[in-house]
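User: Please check C-alpha cell order:
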Amino acid sequence: MTTTHNFAPVTVGELLGQQFFVPRYQRGYRWTPRQVHELLNDVLAFIDRPNGSFYCLQPVVVLRNGGRWDVVDGQQRLTTLSLIMTYFNSRMPEDEAWDVFELDYETRPESRAYLKRPLAGDEGKYVDFAYIHGAYQAVRDWFAAHPTRRGEIESALLNKVKVIWYQLEKNEDPVAMFMRLNVGKIPLTGAELVKGLFLRSGNFEGEDERIRHLKQTRIAREWDDIERRLQEDSFWYFLTNETRTSNRIDFLLRLHAQEIGVEAMPDDPSWLFLAFSKRLNDEKADVMGEWANIRQLFLRLDEWYRDRDFYHLVGYLAATGRPLSSLLELADCNKGELRRRLKAEMLPPVAKGDVTAENIAPALQAWLEDLDYEKRGDHRAIRQALLLFNIATLLESDRVTTRFPFDLFKTESWDLEHIRSVQSALPESPDRAAKWLDSFLGYVTGTEDPAGWRAAVHDAPVGQIDALCIDALHMRNATPFPMKEFPALAQRIIEKYDAEPDREADNTIGNLTLLDAATNRSYKNAVFPIKRKTLIDLDRSGTFVPVCTKNVFLKYYSPMIDDMLVWTAADAAAHQAALHTALVRFFAPAQVQA
C-alpha cells in the first residue's frame, strides 16, 4: 500500500502484504472471544443494513519506518483482522491464499510465526499465545454458527471494512501519542482527524513547496484562532447547551456537515471524519474553498454574537433547545427579515398566527394564566416564559447595553422559585430547620454571627424586641433541636410577614421567578424579606441575578407599595401582568402603548 495521505479510510484489502512492527512499549495481544464476536457481529450487521457504503473501524495510528509501519495504536484490531484472514486462508488452496499482512512484536518475535499457526499447540507457552489461540478459536466458533455467511464476510472485510489510517509525521513523537491514547485514555477526536484531512500534504500536490506550506500554515492558524474563540464560555454557551471543554471546533464542523447535506449519525463516532474524508478525497475537491466555507460559517456566528439583538434572539432559541442548524437555514435574508423570523420562532405556540397585539395578547394571557407549578409538565414552559421575560426586558431599550449571560445561566443550576413561601415546602429535617431559623435570626438581628443574636436580644430596649425572635433563639439553642415544635413557630413567622395568611398556596407564574439553585436551597422557603435581603446582597456582591428576578424582589412591577417586606396577591398579579405586557411589546412592539 502506498499513500500520500496522513488521514484516510483504507480497506482491509489495502493492508494485505504490508509489514507492521509493534514496539515494546505496547502490551501484548489481549482481545477476548467476546470482543472478537462483537467485531464479526458488527460486520454482519453492516452487510444486512441496506445501502451501507462501508463499515469503519477505529483509527490505526502508524509511523513510517523504512519499508514497514510502526504501530502506535490499533495493534489489537490489526492482530484480530490478521487472525480472521488466517482463518479464510485455512479454508482455501495454498496457491489462492491471501497475502496476509504481517505483525512483528518487539517483545515477542515468535508471535509473527504463531499468528500463522494459532492452533499449533503452543498456547501455554506465553500469555500472548493464549489470547491469540483463544481469539482464533472464537473466529472458528463464530463462523461455525454462521456457515452460510463466510463468503459475504470475506468480501466485506476485504472491500468494505475500513480502518481510519492515521499516519504520524516524521517529527511527531510516537511514544507521546501512545501515552495519550492508551495511558491517558484520550481518544483521537473527530475534530483532530478532520484537521489532519485539511492539513495533509496530498491536498497540495503539484504546488510549489513554499505555497503548500503557506496554505497549511494558514489553515492551522485559523483553525487555532477559531478554537480559541470557541473556548470563550460567553461565546460558546450563546451557541449551544453542550458542556464540552476541548475541541469545541467539532461543533462548528458538525454544523458545516449538516449545511452541506450530511446526515448526522450520533451512534457512529467516526461519522464526521468519514463525511469530510469523502468530500476532500473527491478528485474535484477544493480544500481551500471548503475551509473558507467553514470559516465563513464561524464569522457569521461571531457576527451574531457581536450584534446585541441577534445575541439575545439566537441565544434564547439555542438555550431552549432549537438546533442552531435550523436557525442558520433562516438566514438567507437581510438582517431585518432575519430578526422577524427569529422572533417568530420564539413566539409560544399558543400565539401563532398574525403577530399583532390584538391577536397575540389574549392568547399569551390565557397561556400565562393556565401555567401552574403543581403541574410538572408545565415547569419547562414556565422556565422558558421567565427566561423570555428577561430577554424581552433587556431588549426593550436601545440605550441598555447589558447582556444576558447565557454562560452563567447554563453552567449553574436554576430553580423555579416561589416568591411567596409555600407552607408545604417547609424544612423537614432538624439541620434544614435550624438553617431556616438562622436566616430569620440573621435578618431580624442584623448579624449573621450566632454570638451576636443573644446580644441583640439582650441589648434591645424593652418593647422593641419581637417575641418571635426570642422564641426562635430559644429553639435554636435547644439540644436536641425540637423538630416537633418547629412547624408552629415557622408558621407564626410566615404569618407575620404575610398580609394574607389564609391565602392558598400561589403556584401561578406571578408568584414564580428564576433563581440559582444554590441560593434557593440555602434559604428554602424563607419569608419574603429574608429572600429580598439575600438577593440584594448577592446583586451587590456582583453575583449574577437575572434582571427580572431582581426587579421582583424590589417590587418594581407593583403599582402601589404599602410594605416592601410583604409579597401580596396584588404584587403577584402585577408581576404576571408585567410579564404579559413585556411579551406583547416584544413580539408586536409597534402596536402596544408604552
